[in-house]
């Protein structure tokens, strides 16, 4: 019940990793020399086939955190421009924005999008964002699904608010919608055109069931114009580029924003196997399955005495993380008691924490039933 953390490699992914590992171990130089272009293109094409957009919209990273840091450290803000974010975001977003403001001097405005997560609703969330955006807001940094409470934001409706705010501004003053999307990516049956974010950062080793140490950044054309690289890229190894003239105007910004150096190539190059697995099952079926299991879990928890369900019950406002508390018990102790019953749960790493479980694509309905029985037993109800 901890797929939101780090998942096991499914067999097709493990097989691809092993294939590339054997090739690299036999002759690292020639394996890269002969295959890097074809394999890097295949990775990006698999992302496009799964999530939409275009080949050069995507930069590759090792994690959501690397993507957040790469984007927020690369954003160029003018004096007086500000960042709007929320009180519900993960440490990685908060620290990345802190580093950006130390560099640029920009002001951060943090707002609450709801008072009680269990009753969060899209109209209230959108209204609070609309009121908080000002002509100075250059960056709106939000998280698609909050790992603190399991609340899923209406990103499309938020994109409408941003478009409305940008209507009479020059592009250099547009608010850029930046989304930490990791806990919706691999669950929801949507594409990047549906979300209309300027930046979308996610790891692929959670709900996608991709290789450990893989992630991506999507950037819109407007978004890519607003950032500069922090780490030199190695896309020059395989993209056509004249090293003598170094004409960056002819090089895709997504390539420049892919952090270079030597990575765990066998893992990155196995990523298409994970996307292909989702495609073979079918994105609508994946989404329906995960929401079905999470609805089963939430309905079971909501009917228990001494248990407080924090995650909204509706699928519109939640995804694959279910957060709860047991009256009179520390969330960390709840997680340990569940682990003692062979159910892997966790405590959310926030100032106000709670216990979490996450029915995923690999969970069976009977696993959810077993989890509910264990929680009932721990709660003494």
Topology:
Blueprint: H1 11-26, H2 28-51, E1 58-61, H3 64-74, E2 82-86, H4 91-104, E3 107-111, H5 122-132, E4 137-143, H6 155-166, E5 176-180, H7 192-195, E6 199-203, E7 215-219, H8 221-225, H9 253-256, H10 265-268, H11 271-281, H12 283-302, E8 307-309, E9 322-326, H13 331-340, E10 346-347, E11 355-357, H14 365-379
Parallel strand pairs: 2-3, 2-4, 4-5, 5-6
Antiparallel strand pairs: 1-7, 6-7, 8-9, 9-11, 10-11
Helix pairs in contact: 1-2, 2-11, 3-4, 5-6, 12-14
Summary tags:
14 helices, alpha/beta, seven-stranded mixed β-sheet, 381 residues
Task: Describe the protein.
The protein is built from 14 helices and eleven strands. It has a seven-stranded mixed β-sheet, with helices on both faces. It has a four-stranded antiparallel β-sheet with strand order 8-9-11-10, with helices on one face. It is an alpha/beta fold. The chain has helices spanning 11-26, 28-51, 64-74, 91-104, 122-132, 155-166, 192-195, 221-225, 253-256, 265-268, 271-281, 283-302, 331-340, 365-379, and strands spanning 58-61, 82-86, 107-111, 137-143, 176-180, 199-203, 215-219, 307-309, 322-326, 346-347, 355-357. The mean pLDDT is 96.
Strand content is 5-15%
The shape, in one word, is: globular
> What order do the strands of the largest sheet run in, or round the barrel if closed?
1-7-6-5-4-2-3
- Give the % helix: 40-55%
Distance between the termini: 22 Å
SS-derived structural category? alpha/beta
